[in-house]
Amino acid sequence: PESFKAYFELLNSKGDRDKHGINTLLTAKHSHDAPLAIQFREAAQKFRLIDNAGEAVVVPYIPEGHDTSPINMWLSLLEKDPSQKWVYKKLQRYTITLPEHQIKKYRESGCIDQRAQLNVLLDSYYHERWGAHCHDTTLPAEECVF
Question: Against a cut of 0.85, is the pTM above it?
Fold first, then answer.
């Protein structure tokens, strides 16, 4: 308990408490499209106490009993109309987070494509059991957990 108190006293005493404008981002704004628009995603990106240098990647997982992954259909819908929030919710179940440096390697190797402003792992680089794997990228030993 004392260490928590000391931590937050130190944190709160450091300079401008809202230098990134997070309070403004979390203040509800009214518009025609969104009667209660709060910018949670942008606020979360700016508010990083713990550095989580990762990016979301949609993977082409094929659900049991299906022949193909539904992500291509959903991405096509978003490319036509990005305001369809329900599609993003569907895609969440097909999303993993990879470290930014790994995303960069995957892009350079052509393993990741951009569709509807989202990172999408190409079909041939996803294994149902082992997950994402790009043939030209190898993680250094210090980044692996055994």
Answer: no
